[in-house]
Every structure is written in C-alpha cells, then in structure tokens.
Input
Amino acid sequence: MQTQFFAHLRCRECGRLYPKEAIHVCEWDFGPLEAIYDYEAIRRHVSRKRIESRAPTMWRYREFLPLEGEPSVGTQVGFTPLVRSERLAKALGVREAYVKNDTVNYPTLSFKDRVVAISLSRAKEMGFTTVACASTGNLANSVAANAASAGLESYVLIPSDLEASKVLGSLVYGTRVVGIRGPYDKVNRLCSEIAGKYQWAFVNVNLRPYYAEGSKTMGFEIAEQLGWRLPAHTVIPMASGSLLTKIAKSYQEMIDTELVEKAPFAIYGAQATGCNPISDAFRKGTELVQPVPKPQTIAKSLAIGTPADGYYAIQTMRKSGGAAEDASDEELLEGIRLLAETTGIFAETAGGVTVACARKLIASGKIPKDGTVVLCITGHGLKTAEVLTGVLAPPRVIEPSLREFDRLVSSDLAHASIPAKMET
Output
C-alpha cells in the first residue's frame, strides 16, 4: 500500500493536525478527529482503470483509507450488489430506484464489516492485541467475527436488552460479551472509561477516526456501480450519523480526485421515530441535537440517543440540499415487507426505516420523482427476525392431498391475479 496518501489526523472543529495514533478528540476544543489524505497525490495516482483492475472488495479504493500497510483483517469485505428495482421504484413513486445491499456483506451480513476491517487492520498496525467496542448489535457481531479470524482477544459491550439473534451472533465467535443495563449511551460512556484504563483498541472510541473511514467504501462502490456517476439522491439510516457523513465525504473525494464528474448530490437521513434526535433537530431548523434519554423503538440498531455525528449529519444534509425523516415502528415494519416483496431483499429494522423514510420523502416532494434514488440497506433481516412475529400470516397447513391443494389454489385465484394455467 502507498503510505504517503494517508497524511494525518485533523480536528473537525479547529483544524489542528495530529499524528496517526490511537486518539480521537482534540486536546484543545475536544472536537472529533478525522483522517486526512494527500488528495493531489491520490488524483495523480488513481484512475478508474486502475481501480477496476483490482479485486472486487472495499480495498480497491485503498488510497482513500487510513492504513500505513496492507490490510490484514477483512480482506474479502465489500463490493456488495447495487440492485436496480423497477418494482420498488413503482411502489415508491420514482423513476429509478436502487438498493445498496449490504445485507450480504462478509462475514456478518452488515455494513459494519467495512468499518471493522479498517479499525482492526489499523489496530494490528499499532500493535494492539485486544480489541473492543460499544455496540447496538451489528458492530458487536463484526468485531467478534473479525477478531476471531485475526487471532485477537475481544470484548463487546452491548445493551442488555439487545435482540437475541444479535447476542448469539457475537457469542458464537468466542468473544467476551458484556451486557450493560441501560440504553446504548450508557454503554458508550463506560467504554470510554474502559479504553482509558485498559488501553485496548476500542474501534468506536480511540480508533474512531480510522473506523469511521470504512463507511466511505459504500459510497465509492455506489458511484462505480452506477457507471462512475453520483446518484442524485441517497437515503441513509442514521444512528450516530457517521455513515451519512462518510458517504457524503466519499462522493466529494471522488469529485476532488476526478474519478467522477462534478454533479450535485443530495443526502437524506432516516431515523426511527422513537429515537430521532437528528431528524427532529433538522425539522426544527437547528443544529442543536437534543439527546433522547430513553429510546422507544424496535429499531435498536438505530437507538443512539446522543449521536456523536448528529451535528455533522445535519450540516451534510443541509449543504447537499437533502432532508431528514423518521418512521414509526409500524411504518418500518411495512418498509421491511415492501422491500422484501419488491426486491427479494430481507432487511433488518434499520432497512425498514430507510425504505419507510424514503417513501415519505418522495410523497412529500423532498425527493423528486424523476431522479435516481439509492437506498442504503445496512443489515440482514435474520438479525431482527423476531420483530415480524405476529406481523406476517402463518403458513397454511393441508393434508398431503392434491384435492386440498386444488381448493387452496382456487381460493387464491379468487383473491389474487395468480395464473390459472396448470400442467396436467
């Protein structure tokens, strides 16, 4: 890997520069740090042809990622499908709709495999042997799986009421799973204290500047898969708000390095109504994000009451001409069903939020009906399957009789447009 592209860390508030170490806040104003690159060097070095010649993983964009050597963890992550769906577009009321399908990401079926691949590779470069995280589920799964494959010790701290499938999806890898009583914000605060005392590599605390950059790869892939063009409208779920800001950053980096033509792109954020501090602030016309002390939503992966990047997410949406929306539990469940029935993609609750919010943004005219819309679906529905209990109709049970099956089909034909032709 060309080490000269990743230059340093920089405070997002005051602009002070910092060395490439395990630090995440500015010592002057406590602003968050982010990775900065030599974009002129990248522009001279990269090309569409060079990127296309590489393996179909997130690492094909390695010049834009904060490592000093070759990746050592998650080398197969990324380059998930971008699925065009005419049926979904029709249901949403837009001309062209795509789904960025990270439900099939490797190895744990969520976009978090991207950020973990970066942060654990960086942790190994820095000499850490124990990695950890605060998580609402998907990050815990990914840290556990990737740490196991890399031979690293790991701890994952989660809210104690997390979905059973996500708890199991961490335990199976042999990680040390610690449930904390209370919402995610309390888990996160404890992790900050632990990181300071034990000097472990907490992927979303002291390694956050590196971790967050992994989200950019979703944006790079979207643009390449669209034929090296930016989508006019991108709808992204928001928990901390980091994914939204980093996809926007990736679009701008591609413009700045001449990989895509300069074009306007609008960024839209989607939250669950029971924990919507970012969309609420956006709607009120303020950048002051009021914490939600007790989230009330089945979309637990989005239930972060004090979003670390909320302020920056609002700025990103406003600057791009986008907007924010939120969806109730009932709306997100309908979003899961709509996505599955029109695309064959089974999304977790966060995906239901994205679909439901996109539908509302289109209906309100905030997303025009004649543009290209990309929906970012970030995790597989099997991770939160229990939310559909009692929502879907149970299977019909019959005796092993052709006559009974004929009656069933006749009943279906009376209520739906099923082709009547049968082989005899």
User: Anything to note?
Assistant: Residues 420-424 have pLDDT under 50 and may be disordered. The chain is about 40% helix and 15% strand.
